[in-house]
Structures are given as C-alpha cells and as structure tokens.
## 1
Amino acid sequence: MFDEAIDEVLNYLEAQKERGVKYVQVSPETLKSLLAEPETERQKPGSARSSSRAMPRKSFDFAPSFDVSSLSARAPLPSGRIQKPGNINLYSGMDIEIKLGAPLTREEKLAKMEVLREEVLKCGKCTHLASSRRNVVFGTGDVDSPLLFIGEAPGADEDIEGEPFVGRAGQLLMKIIAAMGLSREKVFIANILKCRPDTPGQTSGNRPPTPQEMQICYPWLVKQIEIIQPRVIVALGATAVNALLAQTVPISRIRGKFQPFHGMQVMPTFHPSYLLRYANATVKRQVWEDMLQVMEFLGMEISEKQRGYFL
Ligand code: URA
C-alpha cells in the first residue's frame, strides 16, 4: 500500500514535470505523513521500497523513408491482462474492452472513420469543453497504419488548427517520426481528449485533462482504435499511458517496455513536451530506443545510422 501511494505521488509529480512544473506546494501535514513510513514496511528486511527511483532530468534534435504499407500483416501477439499496481486508481473507469474484430480493408476503415469523425465533431458531452473549444481535434493520418501515436490532449495551437501535434511538441514529434523513416501521413496521430482542456480566466497556457474528462472522451478513441486496428500504439507521456493502461505507474518505470493491450502492444514513452523541457542525451536516447523497439516489432528496416542516433 505504501509503495502504491508513493507510485501515485511519483506519477503525479512526473506528469507535472512533463508539463514544465518545477515546484509543487506541499502542506506540512502532507510532508509529515509522507515522511512517516509505516512500521510494517520499515521493519521488513529487503522491503521493496526504493529510495533511488531515478527521475530523469532535463531540445531534441532528431536527424531524420520507409513505406508503412510494406509492413507485414498482423502478427500473433502476446496476450495477458494489464497489471494493476494497487487500489488507488483514478483511471480504472477507462479499462473498457476494445474489440478489434475481423481485419478491415483501407476503404472500410476510411468510410467508418469518416462517419465517426462526423459524430465526434458534434460531441457536446463535456459542456465546458464544447463551449470553450474552437475545434474538435479528431486525429489525423493513415487510417490503415499499423502504428498509432497517442498524446494527451490538444493545446492552444491544436485547438486553433483542429489538428493534433502542430505546436512545438508536435514539431518535435514529427522529427522523431521522420527519424523512424515515417511521416505524419503514414502513421495515425490522436489524443486521449479530443477537445482542448479549458483554462477559464487564463489567456495562455494549457492544463492536463481531468480523469473525468478522459473517461468521457475515451470511448471515441476506443472507436478509432477499433477502426485503425494498429499493431503498436505509442503512448506519449504519463497521461496517455495511464489512460490507456487504466493504471497509474510512473512513466520512468514503465517506458520502453511493451505492454499487451487488447491484442495490440502499447509502447509507453516520454511526451515530446517533456523532451523539449528536460531532455539530456540519455533521455533522448531512451526515447529513441523505445522507437527502435517499435520499428523492430513492426519489422521495419533499421539502418546503422538509425541505430546509432544519440549514442
Ligand atoms: N500535446 C498533446 O498531447 N497532444 C497534442 O495534440 C499536442 C500537444
């Protein structure tokens, strides 16, 4: 229980750090209770509690074509349920079934996605977001791609353009995708939330989506996934990872490890905003290794040059 509480705090702090938050306020009471380790845990020899959970510190320059249509057909994937670390879980409501069904043709996917887009563009489930948004950011790319990137939520730039990942973080993501030999048109890119989280009274800045907003919006993403039928989903940052896996685990612990996900694979990695703010060579390489794993899994050709980025 103690470890789970620590994980929850770490997870929250990492998500804040991804967003550029440098300091958080902690009341003396909270600090005291955090420092007061439960007797039972302290007395256990070899207790799993770790005092050295490395928090990655601190733009990212990805050097740069590969045709995704050359990717092999869906391979059998490892099955298994996602581990739930504990009973503090803000995302448990998002653990909903995703049914991939029989393979769809590109034409079928295009038609279904268009119908879905029409529906999502009219969505008013979160009245506060529907009234504050300029555009619904549905998602973009190849509906038939085996590779889906999922971010958190549109920011101000995306809200204006109606396209995901067009701001600074988006430009960095495009460099990463280009370094894989791909492009925005060859993968699909979407977010957990389709509307920009509102920031009443603020003229600038973004805020993370609330678990409630994500829970309301997530079924749209589930439908997108069911249409795209990707083999790999790259979950960008703590919010996307938590939402997809319906669990709270610090991103630094889970990144780089494929997670079975309803017959697909999720690759958790750092959000490009985090890289913009904090990436040193080690973190850049970590993200790149995550992408190399994705490329290997998809059977993509990897050049020596690509293997050596950030070494
Ligand atoms: N960050 C996200 O997570 N998604 C976007 O679309 C843009 C920035």
Note: The chain has two domains: 2-70, 92-307.
## 2
Amino acid sequence: MENRKINLWDKTFKPYIPAEKLEKAIDAVAEKVNADFANCEDIPIVLCVLNGAIMFTGELMQRFTFPCELVSIKLSSYQGTQSTGTVLNILGLTADVRGRRVIICEDIVDTGNTITALKELLVAKGSSDVRICTMLLKPDVYKKPDKLDYVGMEIPNAFIVGHGLDYNELGRTGKDIYVIDND
Ligand code: 5GP
C-alpha cells in the first residue's frame, strides 16, 4: 500500500487497510458462503448493493463455487460523510425474488438502516431466505437485532473510502482503503 495521503474534495484521507489484508478477509468470507451453499439445488441470487459493493461482489463471485444469479439494487442513505437515517430506494430490484434465496452483498454496514430496509423489502417481495454478507462492519454503530451472516472485517467508527467506497462519488478507485484524516 502506498504510504501517502489522498485528497478528495475538501477532505484528506490516510492509508488504513491494505489490499492484501482485505483480500484475505474476502477469501475467508467466500469460503464460508461456499460451504453454506455447496450442493444447493436452487440457484441463489447474489444481490449487489450498488455502487459501493461493486468491487466486493465481483471479488466474491470470482471465488464462488456454486451456481448463482447476479442481481443489483441501488440504495443510498449517506450524504457526504454522514448517514441521513433515511434509506432511499434509487434503482429498484432488477429481478423477481419470489421463492428465491438471496445473499445481499454490501460494502459496509454502519447503522444497519440500509441492510434492514433491504431485508424487509426482499422478505415483502417473497424471498425465501435472506443472508447478509458485508465486506466491513462498524460494530460500535450497528445496533439492529438482525444477525449479519458473513462479515469480512470489523472496523472502528470512522469514515473510510476506497475499494468501491466513495466520498461524494470520489475515492472508489484502488484496492486499498483510506480513513478520514482529522489531524
Ligand atoms: P447504514 O445504512 O448501515 O448506516 O450505512 C450503509 C451505507 O452507508 C453503506 O452501504 C455505504 O454506502 C455508506 N457508508 C457507511 N459507512 C461508510 C463509510 O465509512 N464510508 C463510506 N464511503 N460509505 C459509508
């Protein structure tokens, strides 16, 4: 990982999680999902929560060894570096989930508002089973009763970018993760 800070809009971010560490976490998550879905007779849906989870979902799918269908949805609850508390459904679901098992792929779970609203939406639409798979979790902030089935890494409550995650649409590029530099 390059040991240099980056500037995005009005903020500075410093190196935080190197790609190699993330790769290992993604390997471990994929191994668990593969074990749970090995020999499945249905075709589960892998649901990518756009845009942040694009890279993570791609990386998981490269590792998945069971047949699955890729579907996307675009949701947003963040403005700048703060959760607004309201989850907006921007793009809608691109497939019928009735009677299907769904594995939600998220970049990061913070308050859990997004994932909880999405799970409710999928259950309301008739999904037979919904699992949550997230690259990162902020356990100090997440207080929802829903269990997270697969978690790559836990991080403290700080705003991060990189590896698909943005600050007002900038900073998604690159394999490493950066954290806001308040110094
Ligand atoms: P939640 O609904 O759990 O509060 O927030 C989840 C969504 O907020 C994530 O999908 C992500 O888009 C955004 N988010 C939460 N924490 C961060 C963060 O530290 N950095 C960035 N870039 N986005 C975040």
Note: Residues 52, 77-78, 83, 106-115, 159-161, 165-167 surround guanosine-5'-monophosphate (CB under 6 Å).
